[in-house]
Amino acid sequence: MNIISKIIIALIAVNALSACQSNKLNSNHSASTIEPRLTNEQTDINKEYLWGGEILAVENLQQTTELTIISYPLDRNEKPNYKKQSTGRFIASYPGFLEPTDYRTGQSITIIGTLQKFRDGKVAQADYQFPVLSADRMQLHAKASKGYRLPFTIGIGIGIHN
Asked: Could you identify which of 18, 19, 31, 61 might form a hypothetical disulfide with 50, taking C-beta atoms 3.0 to 4.6 angstroms apart as the criterion?
């Protein structure tokens, strides 16, 4: 076997192993995925949650950035599943500045963090109590198109889609 064949085999092996690597925020499964609308001020403060959805608003404050998010259930890849019904709204508070052009309205996001408090607000004319999550880690996602998608892809390797 010549050197080029060995290099090609090594590259294929490295690529195959890197496909198995977990990129999930909740890889140790310590965070709860209970829906934001089901959290309770008396029992759920200071617990860690994994939530995701679509950014509705971005507000850069003096020391933090707050993202208002409409939540959706997460799929097995921790991405919001927009085919399901919304699970409520929440505010993610991130220490420091987040660029509004990156964290823009309509952007898909997953966040892991600690529930700090609840804040009274409004959704249109309706009163709403927003859970406020102190964001520890966040992952932006390309938003899935709502059009028809084939249940398979063509390429090198194995792909599993829901």
From this structure: 31
